[in-house]
Amino acid sequence: MKKLSTEVLVIGGGAAGLSAAAEAASAGAKVLVVESDLRPGGQLIKQTHKFFGSKDEYAGTRGFKIADILLDEINSFKDSVSILQNTTVSGYYKEDDEFTAMRGEEEYFHIKAKKTIVATGAQERLIPFPNNDIPGVYGAGAVQTLMNVYGVLPGRRVLMVGAGNIGLIVSYQLMQAGVQVAAVVEAAPRVGGYWVHAAKIRRMGVPILLRHSIKRALGEKCITGAVITGLNERFEPVGPEQQINCDLICIAVGLSPTTELLSQAGCKMMYVPQLCGNVAQRDRGMRTSNPDFYTAGDAGGIEEASAAMVEGRIAGLSAAAALGYPTEHGKLDEYWGRLQSLRKGEAGARICQGIDCVLVKDWEGVAHA
Amino acid sequence: MPDKDLEMLFNSGVLTGEREGAMLPPRDLWEGKKGGLVVVECPQRIPCNPCHTSCPTGAIMPFADINDTPRVDWTKCTGCTLCVSACPGLACLVIDLTFSEENALYKLPYEMLPLPVKGQKVQCLDREGAFLAEGTVENVTQPRKDRTHVVHVSAPKGLVAVFRSIRVVK
Amino acid sequence: MEEKVNPGGTGAALDLIEEHPILEFQHGKKITFFFDGRELEGFEGEPISSALHANGVRVYRETADMHRPRGFFCAIGKCSSCFMVVDGVPNVRTCVTPLTAGMRVETQRGRGVVPGSDEGGASS
Fold this sequence. Notes:
CATH superfamily of the largest domain in chain A: FAD/NAD(P)-binding domain
Shape of chain B: globular
CATH topology of the largest domain in chain A: FAD/NAD(P)-binding domain
CATH architecture of the largest domain in chain A: 3-Layer(bba) Sandwich
Mean pLDDT of chain A: 96
Oligomer: heterotrimer
Order of helices and strands of chain B: HHEHHEEEEEE
Number of domains of chain A: 2
Largest sheet of chain A: 7 strands, mixed
Largest sheet of chain B: 7 strands, antiparallel
Mean pLDDT of chain B: 97
Strand order of the largest sheet of chain B: 1-2-3-6-5-4-7
Helix content of chain A: 25-40%
Number of strands of chain B: 7
Number of strands of chain A: 19
CATH class of the largest domain in chain A: Alpha Beta
Distance between the termini of chain A: 41 Å
Radius of gyration of chain B: 15 Å
Distance between the termini of chain B: 35 Å
Strand content of chain A: 25-35%
Largest interface: A-B, 43 and 41 residues
Helix content of chain B: 10-25%
Number of domains of chain B: 1
Strand content of chain B: 25-35%
Structural class of chain A: alpha/beta
């Protein structure tokens, strides 16, 4: 069976992975990026809105343009970075120190790497309600792929479940695509995403129903509607039910980090609610307890893409340094400075609590503890 | 409306009165200012500063912390609308009170279709999308050539605290 | 809304976003493929699931035990909802498998049978 070898393997070609690849390559390392989708860019390529953050994280630039900027940067190191698309890393075998991968559905091969950066991102959560399995109940990321990458109308009229940043942004994007947003329901007493994202759709007449949730989906083979209900302070259904006519129910109730490969590599994992799941402990260089594995982006805790890009830079920098490539002195501190400033806001306080749980000062001490 | 309901309304993304990061310009300065003054409605601490970095006159003041809510020195604002098109949250607009006796000129960000044209009538909406009045499109610009348009609409001066969005009817 | 497979087949309008305020879509070459024997149009290189969706197809498979309809869901090749039989091969992740001209895409019933095997793992 074919075997590929590389110095730095980056698993996932999204915001974190592409940043990691660019950083490691700029230090001189040979990098292989493996991306499961048909094109690189991850969630960035689905974003039509301008990014927040500062100029260092491309604030004011639309997400899909940021993907182009990162790919251009990578292309400038053409000889040292290659990207494999439509390729899924399916497992890591510790005894052989090798990955298995498949390109498409049929072509299998092995990958051997000196250092691996796991930038696998996240997967969508689903909430239980009757009929949540029938076609027309789609994850928010999937809706974005359909309409913003492939230009296909996901439906005519949508009920959005969840008012975090994803639910709010995707509602706005659905309107840009010409889809009616019937309502956004949110179980919490306030929107979880940025207030300004909520204001954008509110002033176009979209109701955001706080303390509301979906009770069941309607339809036999496809979605024909939804029944929503109010919730009390204990999140129990109260008050009259309301029927919403829609052919699309978009689920944006949060993400879980994708961490199977880190677990397979024996990295010390920890369940951290603030980071939305089971994530790898890491040092300041994003190195995990397995000295050859690094974590970056949503795989290490759910956060904004701006932070994922900085974490990717840090992981790429440390992996290159660990391979003996000279790196700029003080760069690590500069990147941490950026992360800290991104994490100073309302949402950032929670992230910081989470990071405090998983950050280790240095692995030597922990390993021998 | 009881305080509890007002708070809930605010929590759903509707401004319910002035707050830090969401103040109207001082009326005396505003009334005589040709070109208008910026109105920013950004009352939450989030890591974002393009309003400041895009401002050519320093009217939107430097951020000590990138999470600070914007502070405006209206004496420096020229109503140029660069922040209107730069703000990722579409939280800036410019209102020119010198447009005419009855009407002000509202310069609002717009990223939807259809794009209105000069002379067209559009619906003026409040922060919940409710119809307020009909307005007339006086100009459509694209300050940063990045597909965020700024639509200039003339509409009654009395709507200055409420008119925040438009609906373009084909 | 019952499922409406594009009744006209080839030539009928696809459910595409014609105009967008921010994005410009560059589609691949227009080709034809087969869904349960019917000839449909799609764009080469784009995911099979997107092509089906644009043709109004929502149900991609039926579960083995409870015969529930399944369709598009995660679009990142992780959830197994969009598995279909493609050119005779079952359990193909149609959300990350590119469409090619003449491809034969079929609704999958049950767990599918691996071609060349005599294990009838199909449906119970």
